[in-house]
Design a protein that fits this description.
The strands form 3 sheets. A 6-stranded parallel beta sheet has the order 6-11-10-9-8-7. α9 links the parallel β9 and β10. By secondary structure, it is an alpha/beta fold. It is built from 11 helices and 12 strands.
Length: 284
């Protein structure tokens, strides 16, 4: 897990953009409500899930009205059964109604990411292999989804193109060879972790003789993975990528690799089913 402040960089701007997208110049339906009316509300979880996204949810309402009271009844990253009341809110009716959809969008998406990640992490329990996320994230929500992966028990791969060197097929082609690409990477970025993607055992053998830190086994068969682990002898960290599912991830971990990256954690996310229900408090 990254230091928490990293995940929250730009959170206020992200929420502001989401609110602007939804409310635009003004909530024309909320205008129908007396501005003095206050409401109670609660968020109901309608299916089992790992709850994630409280900072974005809270920020949504606080940008509309800092006096809204939000009382959470469960911890961030906790598993909760269907029917759980996640939090209760009290405040101005117009502001609660205007922020409802944006706040729930953050909560349901990030809880979906965390819940999916937890399933993969549970499948790897006791193996010593870590599940990693990828850069296949919703545009504009990279850090939020990386945070949700961590809440779900997964681990973060690189955040972007700036914090780790990942030498892939086209980089190798342009550089001339795995060795040349690795040497250039170490020369230009001596302080960064360097990883190279290999597509067969010949490329893997070449990568083993370089100074890279991690070797990715892309679309290797299980037999080829075991062969690569034996060739490696613990010299480099090994990562599997491609063709990973919940059904086969534990067997893949059994080949002895260190990491398994899964794009589905952030790419194939199904939002968790939530609803916000209101009751009258008074005013007007």
């Amino acid at each position: 897990m990254l230091p928490e402040p990293v995940y929250f960089q730009g959170l206020e701007e992200t929420v502001a953009r989401a609110l602007a997208e939804d409310i635009g110049p003004g909530d024309v339906t909320a205008d129908l409500i007396d501005p003095r009316v206050r409401l109670h509300a609660h968020v109901l979880l309608k299916e089992p899930a790992v709850v994630c996204g409280r900072p974005w949810f809270n920020e949504t309402f606080y940008q509309l009205d800092e006096t809204i009271d939000i009382d959470w009844h469960c911890a961030e990253g906790s598993r909760q059964p269907a029917g759980t009341v996640l939090c209760t809110l009290t405040g101005n009716a117009r502001h609660l109604l205007s922020g409802e959809r944006t706040a729930l969008n953050f909560l349901q998406l990030l809880s979906g990411t965390a819940t999916t990640t937890r399933r993969y992490a549970d499948a790897l329990a006791g193996t010593g292999t870590q599940v990693l996320d990828t850069r296949k994230t919703v545009p504009g929500l990279r850090l939020a989804q990386k945070y949700a992966v961590a809440c779900g028990g997964g681990h973060n791969h690189r955040l972007g193109l700036y914090d780790r060197v990942l030498i892939k097929e086209n980089h190798i082609l342009a550089a001339g060879s795995i060795r040349q690409a690795a040497e250039a990477a170490r020369r230009h970025h001596p302080d960064l972790l360097i990883e190279v993607e290999t597509e067969n055992l010949d490329e893997f053998a070449e990568a083993l003789e370089t100074s890279v830190d991690v070797i990715m086994l892309d679309e290797f068969t299980p037999e080829e993975m075991r062969h690569a682990v034996a060739m490696n002898g613990g010299r480099k960290k090994l990562e599997i990528s491609g063709g990973v599912t919940l059904d086969n991830i534990r067997a893949l971990a059994g080949t002895g690799v260190d990491y398994i990256s899964v794009g589905a954690l952030t790419k194939h996310v199904r939002a968790i089913d939530l609803s916000m229900r209101f009751t009258w408090q008074g005013g007007g």
